[in-house]
Amino acid sequence: MFADSAKIFIKSGKGGDGHVSFRRELYVPNGGPDGGDGGRGGDIIFEVDKGLNTLTDFRHVRKYAATNGEEGGKRRCHGKDGQDLIIRVPEGTVIKDFETGKVIADMSGEHTREIILKGGRGGNGNMHYATATMQVPKYAQPGQDGQELWVLLELKVIADVGLVGFPNVGKSTLLSRVSNARPKIANYHFTTINPNLGVVDLDGHASFVMADIPGLIEGASEGIGLGHAFLKHIERTKVLIHMVDAASTEGRDPVEDIKAINTELEKYNPELLKRPQVIAANKIDAIYADGDDPVGRIRDAFEKDGIKVFAISAVSGQGVKELLYHVYSLLKDMDDAPVIFEREFDPADLIVNTTLPYTVEKIEDGLYSVEGPRIEKMLGYTNIDSEKGFEFFQNFLKTSGILEDLEKAGIEEGDTVKMYGLEFDYYK
């Protein structure tokens, strides 16, 4: 079975604890503190592997954890950093927060490597806490905890064109004729249980990627059959080809089939109906000449809405070339970049939204202190030396209510704020 979704648990490494020790050497019986810092916990990193095309491996292994940082040592020795854990996924994998369903990252296009969970920062050794009044500090900072999260992985194929239609209308046959794809083809329903991709090469070096989306049925948008598993693959496509059995070899009405499929697409995601559509009226070689004109009836029903209808035979190739060139002309007017799902959820927000306490205190005129487990936790995950990290830090101060509390305490522009050894000037 083609695996296109998986639920897994991921956890970044805990930072190593800072060390408490004192310098002990010959002729230096009472040396100062020399406890080293703990190592950084390992990150959870997702990386695209072009050699993968399913999420099958994640059906067998569901828990992934990076290693913890090591504790600091004597003589200012820094603990070893934890090893990052790289999780390899197929291109097109969308990583979502399992609880909310919001997108964390889309491993497509230029997004081939993403840090999803940062490891905890190592704690400071006691060498950092020596002062004029505290020359024998017996305290070291503990390492920050790692982050943990249940995520949902969904593989959504990356294709320019999606072939949609009811089962057994000839989608696999068409794809095998016009591309390098070799799908299994047989005369029974739901032959295709996974999307097949093929590169369609036209004259003049023009090409595009076409996906045969497995057969849809009415009720697919409610999850009937394998509806949701198939509909998700249509979301990246830029042009949809509706394929219907114009000859009604199984007694189905092609006009009603197209309307039914569009209804399912609209229920699943209304945006899908805004994309260009083309109708491929297939199996014209099986239409009896003395009967009615089913292709004409399809044209009467849909061409008034700007949806062009092509009469084709996927078996003989009749009309296929005209269909493909029309589809390519639609693609030429569209953006070349693949459809990428925007980030909706940042695991770092879990740190901002934590309920851990903090304190805001005025030490003296022009000097304020902000401390507490909430601040320690945030600083443990944030590299404020980087532009992105400092932006996150500023957002944290605003959304957590710390800036508001500082203003209530009487802070003014130019005053200094201390946070665990860090100092900042306050400006609105």
TrEMBL record:
Main location (coarse class): cytoplasm
UniProt KW Magnesium keyword: yes
CDD domains cross-referenced by the UniProt entry: Obg
Localization (cell): Cytoplasm
Residues of the Obg domain: 1-158
Binding site for Mg(2+): 172, 192
Obligatory cofactor(s): Mg(2+)
Record-annotated OCT domain positions: 342-428
Listed GO CC annotations: cytoplasm
Residues that hold GTP according to the record: 165-172, 190-194, 212-215, 282-285, 313-315
Limits of the OBG-type G domain: 159-332
Pfam (any one): DUF1967
Keywords: Cytoplasm, GTP-binding, Hydrolase, Magnesium, Metal-binding, Nucleotide-binding
GO BP, sorted A to Z: ribosome biogenesis
EC number(s) on file: 3.6.5.-
Molecular function as annotated in GO: GTP binding; GTPase activity; magnesium ion binding
Gene3D superfamilies associated with the record: GTP-binding protein OBG, C-terminal domain, GTP1/OBG domain, P-loop containing nucleotide triphosphate hydrolases
Protein family: Belongs to the TRAFAC class OBG-HflX-like GTPase superfamily. OBG GTPase family.
Stated role: An essential GTPase which binds GTP, GDP and possibly (p)ppGpp with moderate affinity, with high nucleotide exchange rates and a fairly low GTP hydrolysis rate. Plays a role in control of the cell cycle, stress response, ribosome biogenesis and in those bacteria that undergo differentiation, in morphogenesis control.
Description of how the protein assembles with itself and partners: Monomer.
Protein's recorded name: GTPase Obg
Chain's gene name: obgE
